[in-house]
Amino acid sequence: MKKTAISIFCVLVTLLALGTFFDLYIAQIVYNPQSKFGKIFGTVGMLPQIAVTLMIFPMVLSVIAVHYKTMKLIAAPIIAVIVGGFVFYNMRYVVFAIQDHVNISVYFAYIIIAIVLILIFFITLPFAKKYPNELLSTAIIGFLTVAVGSFILQTLKIEFGRQRFFTMTDAAVQFSAWYNPQNKAVSDDFKSFPSGHSFSAMLAVWFTLFGRFIPALKNLTKFIGMSALLFGFATMASRMFLGKHFLSDVTIGAFISLFCFFVFYYAIDKNYNKMKTLIFKQ
Q1: Closest CA to 25 of 161, 156, 177
Q2: Is residue 280 classed as helix, strand or coil in its secondary structure?
Q3: What is the pLDDT of residues 91-104, one digit of tens each?
């Protein structure tokens, strides 16, 4: 895993270097607002973040439901409240994402989400019985990656105020380098840096952890990882085709996602026994 992480970050550093010097030039070459590829991945690129957000809470609940007697009295409610609070706070964004692509009412969207949450809860129950530590740690890694990563992403979007390429009327004047913060973003047109879709798409690497509690997926971890990265890079390219982001935007968006994932993965993996001690009775 460490070698893979180093290789990925080397690729991202190279892409960022290219973006630093050739952002505008590349954007002018690849811009194609009618790109079907861009539109498809513009739609599906947010799915990993939606999936992680929806899955982490029922995964946590399934472990608590099965092992609440062996968990420390205060551990279960604290974990449930923190993760559950985060998930339900972000439900509105999930609903907006659904409504962007499906013409349904808000109430029907919430009903669909409730059904999905219930289904995930019951699907994960058998795994919670056999692999509670692995299931819980996977959920916590997903939670921390999305929560911390989203905070960093949204903060940078607002503070840097970089204008999106497709909204520019005079790119030579309106273009700004990624490392040169502008005024605070006053609208979505000035939230080019970093890319939210790239951040979301790279969250697909979280699914590589499923082999820890689903034996059938253990031998497919490398395949899942490669598929997740290909999906992430395809989404990065699609955002550039549509002029929504520059190369540096999508690179930093992906970097934030992967950096948070690997940091929390190694932190929890290294302190695995400490985590069990804090949550479960000995």
Answers
A1: 177
A2: strand
A3: 777 777 776 666 77
Whole-prediction pTM value? 0.91
Whether residue 30 contacts residue 266, with contact meaning beta carbons closer than 8 Å, is answered with: no
- Residue 81 has a CB neighbour count (10 Å cut-off) of 10
**CA-wise closest residue to 84 among 48, 59, 119, 47:** 59
Give the tens place of pLDDT for each residue, 178-222.
999 999 998 999 999 999 999 999 999 999 999 999 998 989 999
Alpha-carbon gap, residue 266 to 244, rounded angstroms:
33
* Residue 169 three-state SS: coil
For the cut 90, the answer to whether the pLDDT of residue 273 exceeds it is no
What the block records as the tokens of 236 is 């990065």
Q: Residues 123-140, buried b or exposed e (16+ Cβ, 10 A)?
A: ebbebbeebbbbbbbbbb
Residue 133: both structure tokens together? 């530590």
Give the span between the Cα atoms of 117 and 59, in whole angstroms. Answer: 9
Tokens of 73: 């009295």
236 vs 198: CA distance, rounded Å: 5
Q: What CA–CA distance (Å, rounded) separates 71 from 53?
A: 24
